[in-house]
Amino acid sequence: MTKKKTPLRSAASYGKLDRDGFIHRSWMKSQGLPDEAFDGRPVIGICNTWSELTPCNAHLRDIAEYVKRGVWEAGGLPLEFPVMSLGETQMRPTAMLYRNLLAMDTEESIRGNPMDGVVLLGGCDKTTPGQLMGAASVDLPTIIVSSGPMLNGKYRGKDIGSGTDVWKFSEAVRAGEMTLADFMGAESGMSRGPGTCMTMGSASTFACLVEAMGLSLPYNATLPAVDARRKALAHNTGRVIVDMVRQNRRLSDVLTLEALHNAVKVHAAVGGSTNAVLHIQAIAGRLGLDFKMQDFDTLGQDIPLLVDLQPSGRFLMEDFHYAGGLPALMKQIEGKLDLTCATVTGEPLGQSVTGAECFNSEVIREVETPVKDLSGAWVLKGNLCPQGALMKPNAADPALWQHTGRAVVFENIEDFHARIDDPDLDVEEKDILVLKGCGPKGYPGMPEVGNMPLPAKLLAKGVKDMIRVSDARMSGTAYGTVVLHVAPEAEMGGPLALVRSGDMIRLDGPGRTLDLLVDDAELAKRKAEWQQTHPASPHTRGYYKLYVDHVLQADEGCDLDFLVGNSGSVVTRESH
Ligand code: FES
User: Fold this and answer.
1) Over the stretch 43-77, which tens digit does the pLDDT of each residue have?
2) Which residue puts its alpha carbon closest to atom 1 of ligand 1?
3) What's the topology of domain 378-534?
4) Which of 74, 176, 325, 425 is 20 to 30 Å from 4 at the Cα level?
């Protein structure tokens, strides 16, 4: 369907032969732009999360130059601008606290400036979701170029994976199976260049979902960060975004409910991070799409794990790309996907999927020979999580999927660190570790501490997994029988706040339940005590206060309540 052509929004600034037009153009010409740059051509913003404090995105200034080539070539005017960057491994208390601040920065930077389309450059875990949330609330033509994954990590002749091997090595040191010197020796070999974690962590997961939703060119998710073909992809993206503007193909024309459903199915097939659940809900909220946490479970249920990548499998993102990348993976489940969904190019998703080839069936499996039969995310309900909780079955020990055990409770992260390795801690292998105070409001920001390390004395006995329950998140690179995103969080006085050491908890993953086996009268008594003794939030100013006052719970995607929805791109008033 051909859309009615609308005037370029940049014309309101650059197209006027009057005082206002003079002001808008003249100052821009200080950068060496010729008159022709303002001849009515599409203006393309390049929204960059480059930062030396976000090493995964450290090459994005370079990538931006290739986007600009394509924009110029197609007859557009590229203008690069920075937004807040979020380095997952650097920011305290957690990069997730700032995802919504990046979203606000992105939204207002796009809306406030005279651009007609935007290319989002991001990659590290929270950068792409934050940018996409902001862009969705403006709804211009939009394309994403991801950082791309790092090259495979190398240590002593073996491949090692970002994050996943950090957790493994660290537990091996605590169990006395690896020396600290050997652990530290792996540090330089793990991260050998720019790009995102090369396991199926949160960044790789979200890059796969972006491609599955048609928001990038094919192979954007898997092409290594340093591969020359990523530069070519950036160049082509520059051409395509100009065409998107000319066709008035907006973000909401591509990012539909059907596209979100495709993303959830791909999430299951790649064994994606639980963090994606929060981000997809938040993005759906910006676009007013009817998508619930439960949909992740329902839509992913009959999709097996088909990519043999860490943390659920063996290989790494470089291997995934050489095996055929995301199009080859989507080909395996094409019968489950809506291949008619539009992509940024205007072609349907099926265009890149139908002819895709797999070059390594060990890395990308067929549906008949999956890595694991079960994948996706289990959404649990019960009296311990009335609004829901999440569990990643393919990362968990099947022997623990259904289990009743005694709670060993830690009131907050400091309590956990102080006692977890205490030889006198009353804990056994069949117990359930419970951590409170790590939700969106409680930490604040909902950090990735849900895969809490096991007690040293149990590790020494060879214990490899235990059930862990918290209101925290978990890194997409992590693994274990971990119940996350418990809502309402402890800080809200949810049932999690009322659990005490010695209580019995029953987990039934396949039955999707999580229950605290304490009677209602006792819970009511504990709740009254909690209300009388729980201190007020210590966050009384600045962004922390804004966040704590307005953040939604995990079952709603942790957006700020007043950011849900969108305001379009129109700004009627001039600045002078
Ligand atoms: Fe940036 Fe993993 S730390 S993607």
Assistant:
1) 999 999 999 999 999 999 999 999 999 999 999 99
2) 124
3) Glucose Oxidase; domain 1 (3.50.30)
4) 74
